[in-house]
Amino acid sequence: MPDLLRRHLLWTGALAPLALALPSPARAKVPPAPAGLSAGSTAEQATAGLDLRGRTILVTGCNSGIGLETMRVLALRGAHVIGTARTPDKGKAACASVSGRATPVVLDLADVRSVRDCAGQVRQLAPRLDALVCNAGIVLDDWEKVDGLEKQFAVNHMGHFLLAEQLLDRVVAAQGRVVVLGSGDHRNAPAGGIQFARLSGEGWYRRGYSHSKLANGLFSLELARRLQGTGATSNCVTPGHTRTAILRNSGNNYREDARTPAQGAATPCYAAVHPAMAGVSGAYLRDFTAGEQSAQQQDAAMAARLWAVSRELVARTA
């Protein structure tokens, strides 16, 4: 039996009661959406009147879709946005396309070394981060693996987990906000939730995106618990079904009611900078208010276990 799997089973048997005993953050009370904001609102409308000068915000996946619109609007409001993309050319082009201050940094979430290098560059650029927006993600229609892990789990969850871990002191220094983009599709995760004993994707890879989005929600929940007392916050948001490039590997099958990137970026921007979200932590938002989520995404024990296993996987690649 591989050592990692043995430790997973040890957690299941001996450590699960400890996870259940961990204090969870109080149920997040999400304030009512400000007047005029609704499902069809845009990111510009969600940030209207805000002056973000003096703030530094990191947005992953800045070169297209929701990430590009998030960067554009936050820079428009005066923030210094550090935008990540997988290649230097994509990042430079995206940052050059927006009005305001935007700095590109290379980040390939599938590559542990790239994540660590990105975090190192960000640490040089910013002594504090007012917000970290974990936006980048992939959708696959086939079984792919990275370092033995199902690729969507590796990219959408593990890459952001490591990035946040590397930069958390910068967020805490600013009493900042971590915003993790989740999805209502988390409800379609495999039976039992996170597949701790089969993280390779064997038997469930066709639900890999849903599995990774459940991981995003649980990561955000456990991070909120760990940030208690720091002034920093962690929330998960779903942008809704948005027409971007994320389905390029799975046929671009968007519904007729798909949102625009301007609409999809509205709630992420709101969670990252709006005064109404000050002090709100451990929430799951859709359209500026509390969204419906599965019991699994609210499972504090599963969230704590995911953190422990993720930390172990990160240590293995150090």
Explain this structure.
This protein is an alpha/beta fold and 318 residues long. Helix content is 41%, strand content 12%. The chain is built from ten helices and ten strands. It has helices at 3-21, 43-46, 65-76, 88-96, 112-125, 151-173, 208-226, 261-264, 266-273, 300-316, and strands at residues 56-59, 80-85, 102-106, 131-134, 145-146, 149-150, 177-181, 233-238, 284-286, 289-290. The strands form two sheets. An eight-stranded mixed β-sheet has the order 3-2-1-4-7-8-9-10, with helices on both faces. Strand 9 (284-286) and strand 10 form a beta hairpin. Helix 1 (3-21) runs antiparallel to helix 10 (300-316). The radius of gyration is 18 Å and the shape is globular. The chain starts with a helix and ends with a helix. Residues 1-23 have low confidence and may be disordered.
Topology:
Layout: H1 3-21, H2 43-46, E1 56-59, H3 65-76, E2 80-85, H4 88-96, E3 102-106, H5 112-125, E4 131-134, E5 145-146, E6 149-150, H6 151-173, E7 177-181, H7 208-226, E8 233-238, H8 261-264, H9 266-273, E9 284-286, E10 289-290, H10 300-316
Helix pairs in contact: 1-10, 5-6, 6-7, 7-10
Helix content: 40-55%
Total number of beta strands: 10
N-to-C span = 22 Å
Radius of gyration: 18 Å
Low-confidence stretches: 1-23
Number of H/I helices: 10
Give the ordered list of helices and strands: HHEHEHEHEEEHEHEHHEEH
Strand line-up of the largest beta sheet: 3-2-1-4-7-8-9-10
Mean pLDDT, all residues: 90
Main sheet characteristics: 8 strands, mixed
Shape, please? globular
- Beta percentage is 5-15%
Which class do the helix and strand fractions yield?
A: alpha/beta
